[in-house]
Amino acid sequence: DGDRILRGGLTQGYSLRVGCVVLTNALGGLLCAAVLKYADNILRCFSTALSIILTCILSAGVLQEYVPDLRFVVGACLAIAATFLYSLGLPSRDPWRRRVLREAARLRRKVGARTQ
Questions:
Q1: Which of 32, 82, 25 is nearest to 58 (CA)?
Q2: Contacts within 8 Å (CB) and 24+ apart, 23-32
Q3: DSSP readout, 33-80?
Q4: Going by C-beta distance under 8 Å and a sequence separation of 6 or more, which residues neighbour residue 98?
Q5: What's the sign of the alpha-carbon dihedral 48, 52, 57, 58?
Q6: Predicted confidence (pLDDT) per residue in 27-41, tens digit
Q7: Considering only CA atoms, which of 57, 52, 4 is closest in space to residue 28?
């Protein structure tokens, strides 16, 4: 095999499809490494889900090997929505927290009135 590699090169027989697969896997690995370095494990799961979605979209659009069905579209929409909801960091609507903050403000006013 060494002679064939010397004559034809390391990537002999690679087609555009094989190049796309190699590029997609390499970018997915780099994305997961960057997420683990700068974020937490939950975001890694989101990045893995989004990379699978991206791979399927590329497979359907560029390579034309995959036809997405309704389940894929619904699952992709749910994964994307979950990613956006997690990154928004919506404030909690905890009634106990509001009650504690109101009580603390009332006690501060009460203590302030006694000291004057």
A1: 25
A2: 24/51, 24/54, 24/55, 24/58, 27/51, 28/55
A3: HHHHHHS-HHHHHHHHHHHHHHHHHHIIIII------HHHHHHHHHHH
A4: none
A5: positive
A6: 878 877 777 777 777
A7: 52
Dig out the tokens for 28 from the structure.
């997915």
Q: What is the number of other CB atoms lying within 10 angstroms of the CB of residue 19?
A: 11
pLDDT value at residue 46: 77
Residues of the chain with pLDDT under 70: 89-95, 113-116
Closest to 14 measured CA to CA, from 2, 5, 1, 27:
5
Cα(30)–Cα(24) distance, rounded to whole angstroms? 10
- Burial pattern 77-99, b for ≥16 Cβ within 10 A else e, equals eebeeebeeeeeeeeeeeeeeee
Residues 6+ apart with CB under 8 A from 82: 46
pLDDT value at residue 91: 63
